[in-house]
Write a structure and sequence with these properties.
By secondary structure, the protein is α+β, with helices and mostly antiparallel strands. It has helices spanning 95-102, 155-160, 162-165, 169-191, 230-239, 277-298, 300-306, 322-330, 345-355, 405-414, 423-426, 443-451; strands spanning 5-10, 25-28, 35-41, 56-68, 72-79, 82-89, 109-118, 126-137, 195-196, 202-203, 214-218, 221-225, 243-251, 264-273, 318-321, 359-362, 385-390, 393-400, 436-442. It has 3 domains: 5-41, no CATH class; 46-137, OB fold (Dihydrolipoamide Acetyltransferase, E2P); 164-459, Bira Bifunctional Protein, Domain 2 (BirA Bifunctional Protein, domain 2). The chain has 12 helices and 19 strands. It has an 8-stranded mixed sheet, with helices on both faces. A 5-stranded mixed β-barrel has the order 4-5-6-8-7. A 3-stranded antiparallel sheet has the order 1-3-2, with no helix packed on it. The longest helix has 23 residues, at 169-191. It is elongated and about 90 Å long. Mean pLDDT is 91; it is low at 8-25 and 27-32.
Length: 471
Amino acid sequence: MNGLSYLALLDGGGRSPPLSICGLLLYQNPILPSVTFLVLRTHYSGDILPEMDGSEVTLAGWAHEVRDLGGICFLVLRDREGFAQVTLVAKKVDKDLLERVRRLSRESVLLVRGRVKGEPKAPRGYEIIPSEIDLLNEAESPLPMDPTGKVGADLDTRLDSRFIDLRRPPVLAVFRIESEVLRSFREFFSENGFIEVCTPKVVATATEGGTALFPITYFEREAFLNQSPQLYKQMLMSAGLDRVFEIGPIFRAEEHDTRRHLNEAISIDVEVSFADEEDVMALLERAMAKAYTDVADRCQKDLSALGVDLAAPKTPFKRVTYTEALKIANEGRENEIEWGDDLDTEAERAIGSAIGEHYFMTEWPTTIKPYYTQPYEDRPEISRGFDLMHPTMELASGAQRVHDPALLVEKIRRQGLDPEGFEFYLRAFRFGMPPHAGWGLGLGRVVLTMLGLENIRDAVLFPRDRRRLVP
């Protein structure tokens, strides 16, 4: 049965398990006689079809709304897959049951058993005629916010009561889509011979230098939350794992307070041996196109809830060099950006507006890319680094990496860092490191731009920024 849920009741004392609990259906486990399974649900609301007219079903969810019209009462039950209308006709239903429904507080947790009846005017074309409704947990009143969305709430209020906010179908839709994005990327990596890895998040040294680090006390020493799996990805290339990916958290102690920055984010990271930047750019654009296609094919209900008509971006993505992008950014700008400076938000938006689709920005100045970025041999001032850009913001950064240990030490020193602090990393380069390339992609930004959301916090279940540490 679709959506079947069980609760195992263990009887450690050898006594017979109870035969009934609140009138719920119980099944004896023939293999483990001391375990009884309590059936909480036979179907989600979305599993039921009008053609199931006359079928007995058990639904579980929340009391979204009660509409009492005197002679008839409608209970709208909400679960993860949508809504089901439970109809109680005063002349045909037990009076006690009707009164209990009329007294229900919104968002109380219920179990509803009853018969499916085809009804074109009801949500999804059916209604449930209940035989029994069990109150599993009564919700307090008033609620901290309105889960129907009829009464607006600002972002801070929504995040403070995220458990309620997520009950709203459009909010839930974002994270169902995010789940599909993750599944799509994992499918892509599996189909292309990648190995999934898990690298440390507590580290002894900065990945990229600088001050954007969260220090922590690690017994008698100082340690840091990792900014990126970069160093460990590269070490795995020396180990011969060849093609790896990781999906996990990264931490940046940057004091941004913008709609696109957080201090904890989920990064999708890739590293590939015997590859250059063009090889991994091709992988990235294919993975992105697949994610869009899979979401469009598999998440139509959630896209409709958000009012999004999604189409996969055209591949291959355009390639725009840093120098070409700088010319676009400086057109009509009062304070021109000098060659070699990083691009600010205003510049990114100007370039994105001119290009109008996903694109790669390539051939960045060596001085503004991390020390592990490979320079061109004939143009050492230019790096083999790239960024994947949406018209509104950066999504990913990547590059061909330095694999020569002498050059890597030199570049670490040029950035004012001490190579001795990177000895654990540098050792992997002295004993056979292949040429390699890779990238890191922000999951939240992919979902943010895919769905046209206003704020990165709308694409993260429990966001962490400079002001928010709970919930």
